[in-house]
Amino acid sequence: MNLFNEFAKDLRVILDDLAARGQLPGGLDLSKVTVEPPRDASHGDLSTNAALVLAKQAGLKPREIADMLVERLKDLADVVSVEIAGPGFVNLRLSDDTWRQRIGDILVAGVTYGNSSVGAGSAVNVEYVSANPTGPLHAAHARGAVVGDALASLLEKAGYTVTREYYINDAGAQVEVLGRSTYLRYREALGETVEIPAGMYPGEYLKDVGAELAGRDGPKWLDAPESEWLPAVRDFAIERILAGIKDDLEALGVRRQVFSSERNLIASGAVEDAYQSLVDQGLIYTGVLEPPKGKKPDDWEPRPQTLFRATRFGDDVDRPLKKSDGSWTYFANDIAYHLDKFRRGSPILIDVLGADHGGYVKRMQAATTAVTGGQGSLDAKICQLVHLLQNGEPVKMSKRAGTFVTLRDVIDQVGRDVVRFIMLTRRNDQTLEFDFAKVTEQSKDNPVFYVQYAHARCCSVLRHAKDADPERSLNPDDLAANAVLSRLEAPEELALVKLMANWPRIVESAAQAHEAHRVAFYLYDLAAAFHGLWNKGKDDTTMRFLLDEDPELTTARLALIKAVSIVIASGLDVMGVEPVEELRG
């Protein structure tokens, strides 16, 4: 149960009743009214901005509305006090029993605690990674993969219906270069001495592909004209590299439902269809773009071009859809792709993109709005760079990849759970430093260890409790039924419970904001609160979890600890990280 949502519903009932009584105008827009924890916990348990956001609409001072709300809110069950703070915030304090009851909710729900129906089954397409199939995934791809995968899981937990998609860029010049580069490695596998010229892919990974092609086809292509061997070699290379990409994603715990081919999309006539849709709306014209101030964009040419009226939808300039030779631009293909995703039933589109796509966002959002008739929306999550370090020093490049460190290199060195967790410890739009030494050290400064250690400590306490009393039931349902939770009276215990009760709100707010990193931030805070409670017992024996002289309090604390382990596991599940029950140094 999202306790904050429950009080928000009560608040809306009160506001509707005040309007019915004539104390407030009817028809007020309540969309910006919130109920959430106050920034300073000393101010109370819940805070609402209702008086502030409704004052202008109602033609009243915030304090006047706040006074009305205080009179009504103080009569709600579980509310022990209501106060007005600052310019008109209304802060509530709830009874301790109200918070303690959340432990029972957690124990009964298990890792499904925090599941929400706020998404109401709305269809969302999350497209992520979508690396060109020209080589193995590199470390930077790990960030987009984790951000996209965790976001998809978060949306599912919040009640959305999610499609996880990979867009295969298997059309265009880059895959032609791949075909020619593979052909050189094919000739090399057949005994020739080759040089890899500038502009080709130099990575040694293509040696394996070339050797496999030579093993399958022998010298078949050696004397064939390029027009014959290029399509065959290109397709073979794409297939093999894509298989490797899928294996790497599987190693990272990323599983996909849909792989969409750009080449198939073009062949189906989807680009012409999307273009005609824009023509029918009067959004296509022939014109000459003015050269922009400063650096010229790569799609600007001083000639008449077929342009999309992107500026009507918030873009900086109108955008060309055809090249000089009459072929489609990449942008035209991408418009067709986003229309295709929309037509497959996903009005909410999320693209997780690399740092080099910053200038792409406005035009694609404009095009999505236009081509879907305003029925589709696009949120682009730009993942900034990942700097790989070893004790603060840059990591050397991978010989196998040629120019970068591969994703598999990183997974093999630290494990997939570490990779997944660390990639969510910064906002996606912030640069992230991944220091191989730091992410594996056992300290508070390593969030992976800190959160996992909290879960492992919970499991350790539960094991010791079972060892001390083999007949004791640690089944969550039994703990929920038998624990006398009123025995949990210490401020640190209640603070921990309040933090756990915030998890359903975190799930909903993070899902609606499309910000999976909030889960990692929340888990770190929860772990810190738990470790603080653990350390309290070192100095004060009455705060220890297992008390031989007080089995009732012990059972209550075991219920609390079990709840902590469940919430941590629930959060890690969203992140795609396996909770550990024991850590070894």
Automatic annotation (TrEMBL):
Subcellular location: Cytoplasm
EC number: 6.1.1.19
CDD domains to which the protein is assigned, alphabetical: ArgRS_core
Keywords: Aminoacyl-tRNA synthetase, ATP-binding, Cytoplasm, Ligase, Nucleotide-binding, Protein biosynthesis
Chief subcellular location: cytoplasm
Database matches in Pfam families: Arg_tRNA_synt_N, DALR_1, tRNA-synt_1d
Chain ranges of the DALR anticodon binding domain: 451-583
Arginyl tRNA synthetase N-terminal domain mapped to chain residues: 1-94
Molecular-function GO terms, alphabetical: arginine-tRNA ligase activity
Signal peptide annotation: none
Annotated catalysed reactions: tRNA(Arg) + L-arginine + ATP = L-arginyl-tRNA(Arg) + AMP + diphosphate
Entry keyword annotation includes tRNA processing: no
Xref: HAMAP family: Arg_tRNA_synth
Subunit comment: Monomer.
Family named by the database record: Belongs to the class-I aminoacyl-tRNA synthetase family.
Protein name in UniProt: Arginine--tRNA ligase
Record organism: Skermanella cutis
